């Protein structure tokens, strides 16, 4: 039973690593994609220049935190990958490293949520309604919102 559970966790870990890591040639494009989505939304929201400035300031405030967290996750993924490829299976080390990754992912989720909430507060009531409609429309089409 333990071997079956370990194999399942290794398989899940491997697939989560491969899907999270993405293709190396696209790694640098993620930030640009997010920036483009951000600017698309800004255009649709009819923001004042003051609101645009506030949103850029909020993004600038949170960007270093997200980057630092992202770098930590990359290092942990690398460590986990080497543990999974090792000749000797160290279950304890794999569990420890996987727990670290989960912690950093939770941190990233919290940072992103705080940033999005701060940005949402910059919008007036009409813009907030419009944003919610755009977000709902994206989810209906199966797209993720930024």
From TrEMBL:
Residues 1-21 form the signal peptide. Coiled coil: none annotated. This is Spy/CpxP family protein refolding chaperone. CDD domains: CpxP_like (cd09916). The keyword Hydrolase does not apply. It is found in: Periplasm. Keywords: Periplasm, Signal. It comes from Aliikangiella maris. Belongs to the CpxP/Spy family.
